Structures are given as structure tokens and as C-alpha cells.
Amino acid sequence: MGIKKKIKIFIDVLMFADFLFLMSHEFTRDLYAHGCLGIALFFLFLVHHFLNPGFFRSLLKGHFNRQRILLCTTDLLLLLLMLLMAFSSVMMSGSIFEFSSIQMTSWSRPLHTFSCSWGFLVMGFHLGIHLKRFLDKLPAIPYISLVIFSMGLGLFCAIHSEFYVYLFQMNMWKRSATNLFQCVGELLGMTAGMIGVASLFGKRKKAP
């Protein structure tokens, strides 16, 4: 594995860990740290795209099969949601950073909650698309069992945490988890669920 590939993986791991912390704000309760790590997340997102310039260079080139359409749609949707996260964050920055004179509007927090919730799920789906080639190496029975288990776990976590509320109702951020570890565990479970969903798309390559 080359050094550039290792850096890409390291950046992606940092992004995911950062996103987990930000999505656990209900328990961390540190607005200043939340704001700083939010800025760091967007910076890492830019670095991620800087290290993967081929996506934009080839966006309008070549043949679009179903797998490429799925990947491009997911990437563009995630980009849009990240921009909405950043925009809504800027509109709330006056309540976090003293140097910002921007006054928080009535719609900035609901928009932030909405874009973060969908962004987290789309990120999990995006991760699943890239992990599919590794899952495809599993024999049929373990593969099917793992996919069913991960989707069941994700659905359970989404229902138990009431995460689904914030996908359709832009309300105050409050979930049913009683502590930070439960909150992170439910977020990881939903990520596993989205990876399982992503594995259903595209033709599965038979394991050797």
C-alpha cells in the first residue's frame, strides 16, 4: 500500500471519528469544541476531495453504468449535504465564536440538524459502496448473514435512538440514548446498517 493510499485512509478515519463526536453533541455539550471540530470536519472533507481529484475530472467523461451512477449520485448528494452543514454552521457561528457577528436565525438550527442527520446516513452508504468489494470476497452464506445482521442492527438503532425523527422533522436535537457510549454505539450500528444497504446495490462478485 502506497503512502498516498495510507494518508487517504487516515483522513477518512479522522473524518468518521470527528463526525461521531459531532453527532454526539447531546452528551459532549461543549459548543466551542463542537464548532472547532465542525470546522475540522469540513477541512478534512476538502482534503479528502483534494486527494481524490479523479472524481471531478472524470465526472462528465466515459460511460455511466448503474454502479457509476450510484456512486456519482451518492458523492454529489454528500457534497450538497456537507455544504448545507457548513452554511448552517456559519449562520449559527455568532452563538459559538466571539469573533463572529452573525446572528443565529430561526431556520439555521433546523437546517443544521436536518443536513447532519441525512449527511451521516449518506456517509455510511458512501462507505458501504467502497467496502463492497471487500464484502464480496466472503462466501455466500457469511455474506448474506452479515448483510442481514447489519441492516437489522441499523434499523433497530435508528428506531431505538429515534434518529428517524430528525430525517423528516427539523426539530431540537434530542435522542433517547442515556449516555455517550450508547449514543456512539447506536451511531455505529446505523453506519453498519447503511453499509449493509449499500451492499445490495450492484452485482456481487463471486468469492474465489
Characterise the protein shown here:
The chain crosses the membrane at residues 7-25, 31-48, 69-91, 111-131, 143-167, 179-202. Keywords: Membrane, Transmembrane, Transmembrane helix. This is Flavinylation-associated cytochrome domain-containing protein. It is a single chain. The two termini are 22 Å apart. The protein has 9 helices and no strands. It has helices at residues 3-23, 25-28, 31-50, 54-57, 66-92, 108-135, 140-160, 165-168, 180-198. The mean pLDDT is 82. It is globular. Helix 5 runs antiparallel to helix 6. The protein has one domain. It has 208 residues and is an all-alpha fold.
Keywords:
mainly alpha; 0% strand; single chain; 208 residues
Termini separation (Å)? 22 Å
**Beta strand %:** under 5%
Q: Helices and strands: which structural class?
A: mainly alpha
The largest sheet, given as strand count, sense and whether it forms a barrel, is:
none
- The shape, in one word, is globular
Domain Flavinylation-associated cytochrome: 74-130
Protein name: Flavinylation-associated cytochrome domain-containing protein
Keywords: Membrane, Transmembrane, Transmembrane helix
Transmembrane segments: 7-25, 31-48, 69-91, 111-131, 143-167, 179-202
